[in-house]
Design goal:
By secondary structure, this protein is an alpha+beta fold. The chain has one domain. Helix content is about 15%, strand content about 15%. The chain has a two-stranded antiparallel ribbon with strand order 1-2.
């Protein structure tokens, strides 16, 4: 997902949507959880980040783990 071995899908998503729309500041709460290198602000910071893709295949929204989902 992040670092030099990031999958091309995530490289593409992070290029299109560099940061979550609901949290443009934080990357992670505790730096000890960052285990990849290099670290960039557009990295996916948590496994619950969401990318919304439109019917045309283009990413149009990215949400952080803090975004409340419908349950």
């Amino acid at each position: 997902v992040n670092g030099v071995n990031a999958h091309p899908l995530f490289v593409f998503l992070k290029e299109k949507l560099p940061q979550p729309s609901d949290d443009s500041v934080s990357l992670m709460g505790d730096p000890k959880f960052i285990i990849w290198s290099p670290v960039n602000r557009n990295d996916v910071s948590w496994n619950f980040e969401k990318f919304l893709i439109g019917p045309d295949g283009e990413p149009f929204k990215r949400y952080s783990r803090r975004f409340l989902t419908i349950v």
